[in-house]
Amino acid sequence: MVARFLRPMDFDPIIPHEQANQGGTVIEKFEANSDVAFAVVLLTPDDVGRSIKKEKLKPRARQTVVLELGYFIGHLGRDKVCALRRGDVELPSDYVGVVWEKMDDGGSWKLALARELKAAGHEVDLNKAFSL
């Protein structure tokens, strides 16, 4: 869905799970595909977990996604990473306080992502995105 939004605006999204593993580790895969100017990380409730101090399980993003978020924040800087959060997914504790965007069903996340891309210095033409 995010890639379908970005492609008409002449962005070329790299989706990690669609890239060849080439026998490497997750971090090597990130490094091999990290020559980018901006990263969008999707925090979706694909796992559940809890702190040992709590009893109730909470929806969480997969640990590889949390690693990807941290990697790209370190590699590109926070201003070049947009985390889109779907549902009531628990945020990584070290990420609390950093602004993220809600990935809603109404599509307002598209304008929020476009705003972040523009603020990061990218040309954004929403006419191309919404002309389909």
UniProtKB/TrEMBL annotation:
InterPro entries in UniProt: CAP12/PCTIR_TIR_dom
Chain ranges of the CD-NTase-associated protein 12/Pycsar effector protein TIR domain: 2-104
Highest taxon in the source lineage: Bacteria
One Pfam family named in its UniProt record: CAP12-PCTIR_TIR
Protein name: Nucleotide-binding protein
Organism annotation: Paraburkholderia edwinii
Lineage, top ranks: Bacteria, Pseudomonadati, Pseudomonadota, Betaproteobacteria, Burkholderiales
